[in-house]
Please model this.
Amino acid sequence: MSLKNVVVIGAGGNLGPSILEGLERNPAYTITVLTRKGSSSTFSSHVKVFRIDDSFPSDQLAEAFKGQDVVINLMPPVNVDQHKTVIDTAAQAGVKRYLPGEFGSDTENQDVVALVPVFHAKLEILNYLKSKESTSLTWTGVATGAFFDWGLNVGFLGFDLKNQSAKIYDGGNARFSTTVLPTIGKAVDGVLSHPGETANKMIFVQSFTTSQNEILAALEKATGKKWAVTNLSAEKTRLEGLEKLGKGDFSGIGDIIVGAVYSGNEGSNFKNHKKLSNDLFGLKEESVDETVQKVISG
Model:
């Protein structure tokens, strides 16, 4: 199976630019970005841009998918029916490989989904993809853990770079898998370069396994200063996030995910229960200290 013609949907988000960059490094790919007509995102001159109506009508999707080998859908799983329409159209158009917007936790892990109910939508999309295995459409889910560099920069991981303060949950020793954005881009190239080994399965990659205390030590080393620490409960934070979400406050999603990751659940540490694909893709183990220093240095 040759996977050369690639469509990326939702390429203007947090992850999209790194995936495009990873693909653009390989001259074998012809890349198309599928975007809404109402989007203001701009893209490299090296990629073709195909604009469709914001409702993603199936006839326009079909036109965009003609001759394409791969669809990478990075849209958030808010509208599951829309994702199903994209999958149906891809299968009908003869697309060979579909990468859903996993790129995070292991949504096949029942314990993880129980802790983070918003992942039910991702699981529904994944199961729908599995129902298409009898067609020519294959799929690959890429689990990466949290986006480490992005998470540090925006405070998602509980570290405030500007004020040099940290929120430490449950003592800070829980270990979890995490990946930097450029490595995720390389992993996607790895998937498409190894179609047989990656068909119809979740694959797992990481930059490293770490803990909050290791990250804090690396941040204090990089800044040469002692950081202020607030100790919190992971489960209390998760429950507060669920309460926020129940009231329509979507900021609660971050609290739910952070609470789950820092609770010490086994599903957050890929090394404990999954075979990593780092070696298959030529992805070397990275350094927490060096990565933190790069983030601090900008």
